[in-house]
Write a structure and sequence with these properties.
Largest sheet: 2 strands, antiparallel
């Protein structure tokens, strides 16, 4: 397989894309017992042959992806390959997730080892937020080996970010280096222990994500809220909440689109725990940008759908937030016009008017009663 990537002239983007999709489909879905026994007496020999064939096939795909990356060792090309890995990383089949995760680690290691960086010359790692956000749900994957691979990949990506910032490979960063301990801790199956690890990942990312990567990171995490593995979607939610809590002040210009995206995801989330946590994300964002979040929620049409009602109600779960929200709503009521006068459509005399409730004021009154 890998020899296709070395052919000249250079293959077009469309050909490369089809090539990766075809080989990933063929290899990732390959069953562990892909070679059938031809004769019962040769069972042991067939088992060895099967194992050897499977290993060579997996290695062939890994080499193909590496060669495609080395053809253009840029963050854009790495991102292009990751887009093809994305659906497999969230597959409902553990074996497929593991194979894709293994390839992701190999690619990131290849990028780290082969990419040349200028010491003291800071540049931008354009897709860092997207890559890390894609991997966060796997930190709480049901499979221990996938969890460990995910933590390793996140650490390596942050090490690459340090090189983009102009650091030398010999320089140590205590925060990024400390992720190695998380790799050992993530091997535990205790839910409380995993929750602590995910929280620690959120703290590290809050410290290390550049400002320009914060928004793409959050958008990618929004997709992780729909991960088919409940613990994985909850992991995305925990990290989302943690980063918003620590970096939410930087999101002033994105509030409207963030609230809109959260509203859409809340209507799709299946896991109850993830949905509850995502509602808290709305509250966390409101703690940074109260007026903006309130104004966004007031714009939704009446009667409010269940998701909007839940957003208003989650404010009441925190005494401080509830007080601030109520004070803001009461202030708006004092300033608002309760109704508008318009010509009565039932009367021929256009001078006769009818009073119609002012939509924003009505929305505020309903919110006060939620």
């Amino acid at each position: 397989m890998q020899y296709h990537s070395r052919l000249d002239p250079v293959m077009t983007v469309e050909v490369v894309s089809d090539l990766m999709d075809t080989f990933m489909m063929a290899v990732y879905t390959l069953a562990a017992d892909c070679v059938r026994n031809r004769e019962e007496e040769d069972e042991e020999r067939e088992k060895e042959a099967k194992g050897d064939l499977l290993v060579r096939t997996l290695n062939g795909l890994a080499e193909l992806l590496k060669q495609l990356l080395l053809k253009d060792l840029s963050s854009q090309n790495l991102d292009n390959i990751f887009k093809h890995l994305e659906p497999w990383l969230s597959s409902t089949v553990e074996l497929e997730r593991h194979r894709a995760m293994t390839n992701a680690c190999q690619l990131i290691d290849c990028y780290y080892d082969r990419k040349e960086f200028g010491i003291g010359n800071a540049t931008v790692f354009a897709h860092l937020g997207d890559h890390v956000g894609l991997l966060v749900p796997r930190v709480a994957d049901p499979s221990v080996s996938i969890r460990q691979l995910a933590v390793t990949c996140i650490q390596r990506l942050l090490q690459i970010q340090l090189l983009y910032n102009g650091h030398s490979r010999d320089e140590e960063d205590q925060v990024v280096g400390g992720i190695s301990q998380l790799r050992e801790r993530v091997a535990q199956d205790d839910p409380n222990a995993l929750y602590t690890v995910v929280n620690d990942i959120a703290k590290v990312l809050s410290l290390k994500l550049p400002a320009d990567q914060l928004d793409p990171f959050l958008r990618r995490l929004f997709k992780g809220l729909l991960d088919p593995q409940d613990h994985s979607s909850s992991s995305a939610c925990v990290v989302l909440n943690g980063v918003m809590r620590n970096r939410g002040a930087e999101l002033r210009t994105q509030v409207e689109s963030l609230v809109s995206d959260l509203h859409c995801k809340l209507s799709e989330i299946v896991c109850t725990q993830t949905r509850t946590g995502t509602l808290r994300c709305v509250r966390t964002l409101a703690n940074h940008h109260l007026v903006d979040v309130i104004n966004c929620l007031l714009k939704y049409p009446l009667p409010y759908d269940q998701t909007v009602r839940d957003c208003w109600q989650v404010f009441g779960a925190d005494a401080g937030t509830a007080q601030n929200v109520l004070e803001r709503l009461v202030e708006m009521l004092f300033r608002a016009v309760p109704y508008v006068e318009k010509p009565d459509p039932r009367e021929r005399d256009k001078t006769k008017t009818i009073r119609i409730a002012n939509q924003p004021t009505l929305a505020v009154r309903i919110c006060c009663c939620c």
